[in-house]
Amino acid sequence: PGAMSPAPAKEIPQEEGEGGGRRSGWGLLLTAGVGGALAALYAVATPFVTPALRKVCLPFVPATAAQIQNVLKMLENRSGSLVDIGSGDGRIVIAAAKKGFQAVGYELNPWLVWYSRYRAWRDGVHQNTKFYISDLWKVSFSHYRNVVVFGVPQMMPQLEKKLEEELECNARIIACRFPFPCWIPDHTTGEGIDTVWAYDLKHSRGCETKSMEITPETKS
């Protein structure tokens, strides 16, 4: 009996070691699984919440339901083509298309553009919408009559100058969240972050003079 007594003592630590190894293995698998899931979530979510590389940093902030309704209110009795500068996930473009506009969105973040195209297809307005991956400073907006802008204060002065040089006098520019620095809005609606300012370019400085210059002279 004395010779057999050490055997159980050796077996017990061995069994505990094997069980601990199994638990450790499952722990490593669980940690790897959770880590992989978080990495996948980060890879999918990051392009939606971080800005693409651009001249002025424009973080993606989705338009609220109130902002969309305020924009549509400023588009009442309007017609023609529409462009959303910094279209994000396409909410404004899709809402305008549902109201009958041929609507276009320009966005530098490719993930948001692809997602916008999917949403337009899902909502049945893909034939009336287009989304382009492009830097707004490299695009001419001269053939649009309705322009929607989601910008930041740093870009508004330069964008104001660009739009005044490119757009026709019958254009309406709708600014969301931040107004233009020099133009005086013709219409304003909403409160706080949902405020929307509408500018009719024919009332801006120099536009009436431009209209007079292209008006044919009447015969006496």
UniProtKB/TrEMBL annotation:
GO BP terms: methylation; positive regulation of sensory perception of pain; regulation of mitochondrial ATP synthesis coupled proton transport
InterPro entries in the cross-refs: FAM173A/B, SAM-dependent_MTases_sf
Membrane topology of this protein: Single-pass membrane protein
Subcellular location: Mitochondrion membrane
Bilayer-spanning residue ranges: 26-45
Annotated keywords: Membrane, Methyltransferase, Mitochondrion, S-adenosyl-L-methionine, Transferase, Transmembrane, Transmembrane helix
A GO term from the CC aspect: mitochondrial membrane
Region (Disordered), start-end ranges: 1-22
GO MF annotation list: protein-lysine N-methyltransferase activity
Family under the similarity heading: Belongs to the ANT/ATPSC lysine N-methyltransferase family.
Stated name of the protein: ATP synthase subunit C lysine N-methyltransferase
Origin species: Donacobius atricapilla
Gene: Fam173b
